[in-house]
Amino acid sequence: MSSRTDRRLPIVSPAGTLAYIPDHEPKLGWKRFPVNREWLSGYSVAREADLLIHDSQYTHAEYAKCVGWGHSAMADALEFGGSPG
What we know:
The chain is an alpha+beta fold. 19% of the residues lie in helices and 15% in strands.
């Protein structure tokens, strides 16, 4: 059994649910998020969260040069966080 903790599981308590998703690139170069949000990487972790802490490293201009590096543009992280759950 691995001692590594899965960093993509939500933390649930009576006070609410926290989702921490580091090193995440849900759009992965797409122009738009898919209509069916369940196809998004990380959606199942974030959908019930009261608070989402999500990776965002780039502006859109910077992201265009770094697609596939495993990090999000700020606007994409905000859009992902605003996805209906």
